[in-house]
Amino acid sequence: METILKASLAGGTRRNRERTVRVRNPITREILEAVRSRGLDSGGISMLPGEGCRPDATAWAVLALTAARFDSRDDGLIESSRSRLAAGQQKDGRISISASNPEAFWPTPLAVLAWGGSPEHAAAQSRAVNFLLSISGKHWDKVSDSPLAHDTSLRGWSWTEETHSWVEPTSMALLALKATGHGNHERVTEGVRMLLDRQLPSGGWNYGNTFVYGRELHPQPDMTGAALTALVGLVQEKQLKRSLEYLKERVSRLHTPRSLGWAVLGLGAWQSRPKNSDGWIMDCVKRQERYGTYDTTLLSLLLLAWMADQGFAFLHPADKGKL
Amino acid sequence: MKRFSIETQPVPCLTRRQFMRGALGGMLAGTFIPMLENCTRRNRHAEAFIARVGSYEADIASVVLSGLRELKVGVEEIRGKRILLKPNLIEPHRGAEHINTHPLVLRGIAEALLQMGARNILVAEGTGHNRDTLLVMEESGLGEVLREDRIPFLDLNYETSYSVKNAGGHTRISTFTLPLALRQADWIVSVAKMKTHHWAGVTLSMKNLFGVMPGIYYGFPKNLFHWEGIDKSILDITATVRPHFAIVDGIVGMEGDGPIMGEPRKAGVLVMGRNLPAVDATSARIMGIDPCKIAYLAAASGWLGTIRETDIHQRGEAIASVRTDFALVEKIEAQRGLRLA
Asked: Of the four listed, A246, A274, A276, B129, which is most buried by Cβ atoms within 10 Å?
């Protein structure tokens, strides 16, 4: 017992040391500076310099700032950003992309994650969770001669109101619900079934269609990474074997922030973070010279991939066991 | 530049109820009576230019200049204008030149318009299935071409937007949220790919406009439009966006199970014109497909333009000389019975 405890403490110390090294790396500082510079006096964070507040940018930035938190320097920005998200929450608990587009509620699970660990925003988080548990898109009984192969009756989450369930919003909702202790809820169970049903037989996920008129569609690395990240703790690794193989093979050829960020997170979530990840991420940050300035979502995603070696689990250490 | 405007057009040939019956009930029942009626009516005239282009290595800029000249798009119309080119970008597969609008077509168009004095060129797209537009750009080869030519790209999925009334009225959507770049552009060109489509029959310059609708408001895929009806959504978006010009890349198109999983089909043409329904109808005929049997084209005729062959002044090559029948898949409902006699 004592040996196990010592090993565990040694592991924890090593992890803390590694974390400190990462936080102090110039890449972390570069991303953090960029994200901080988009903080708005009125609260919240913009997607690009000079723009207005966007809830998705704000939530992603809070996650990144939290992940790389070293001292209290960013605490004010984190809290004001969380409050800005709460100020934009609608009565039913949703967070929409803009006030004039309430039907586009896909930022809701992001806000739930961003409010994690903040007692001040527990009520807002709870309302958002209730919204997620209550909302479901359009689903219908699977028809035998349908051109779509997936089980259309399984409820996940949609991007916008009154539409079908798709992979990314379902993955984000699962992450949010797990992080708030709802990992055993029936909607989570059904959402997991939905994601497994949308997994491509050859491995990986795309936006959410498997076969159309008998042809298997192509996987996408970002969607595969998001689904793998979400499914940690909910399914057995053997159920994802082909998807992990697909992403391990694909990741070395990814140079763009969204795909690379999610791929590293997804593989890391299953203890398969590629050895070269750090180099790829650093190279990807430098590629802004080629692609132009990354938006806040992309920078935050890269920072999360940089900091995390186990997907999203580090954001909510207390939930690690439950997840 | 005169945009086509619903206020100045003849009364639509199809009432909303007729269109609904034709597009949904009619198609399911295998009858196209309202659409055929529409095809036989006399509509406004339009012009379409067909150019034979053997490969993507050809001098596409010269071809485009010839087409613009034939279609009476003068220097005075282009000089000093901010031009937005809207390609069809779907999947990130290098070498799969039958899926996306080819980068060299965009290069040729940009070169031609800059020669005519355009103030600047912007390529803008909001991919429908992929959130990672940079990946699509990189792996399709478009990024490399645009960087070499110093042409900026705008991701319409994430662009600042504005609200505008739905000018079509076929769907239940009262207002659309559109990217600000559309309002800022002086001249919008739909640069589509010549493809069959498993939900819409064909995807050409009108269907290509789904890509201007921002994913952050409409999702990935833009599923709301599927629920509202693809045909009706195509009409509403076209009526609202009102592009000034269309160019269809049929040098290598896609047949069969388009828009992604089909096979390459070389038609060796570029088709262009001011009137989108006319350009699409001409493209469909080149593909050996009867445009009158494509629900949204039939419904657009007499309203957004014309698809009637005798009302379209064909310039350049004759349709018959370049006709290349694209394979249709019998089990795909939207492609059944489309073959041109």
From this structure: B129
The length of chain A, given as a count of residues: 323
pTM: 0.91
Chains A, B: CB contacts under 8 A, how many? 94
Nearest-by-CA chain B residue for A103: B217
Residue A243 counted as domain residue: no
Number of other residues whose CB lies within 10 A of the CB of residue A44: 26
Q: Is residue A224 part of a domain?
A: no
Q: Is residue A11 part of a domain?
A: no
How many structural domains is chain A composed of?
1
Residue B336 burial (10 A CB sphere; 0-12, 13-18, 19+)? middle
Task: Pick A222's closest partner by Cβ from B132, B257, B329.
Answer: B132
What's the rounded Cα separation, in Å, for the pair A155 and A142? 12
Q: What are phi and psi of A91, to 5 degrees?
A: -55, -35
Q: Under an 8 A CB cutoff, do B147 and A218 touch?
A: no
Of A51, A166, A259, nearest to B135 by CB-CB distance is A259
* Nearest-CA distance A66 → chain B (Å): 25
Class of domain B9-335: alpha beta
Position A158 in a domain: no
Quick: pLDDT tens for B172-222: 999 999 999 999 999 999 999 999 999 999 999 999 999 999 999 999 999
Across the interface, which of A100, A166, A213 has its CB nearest the CB of B220? A166
ipTM above 0.90, yes or no: yes
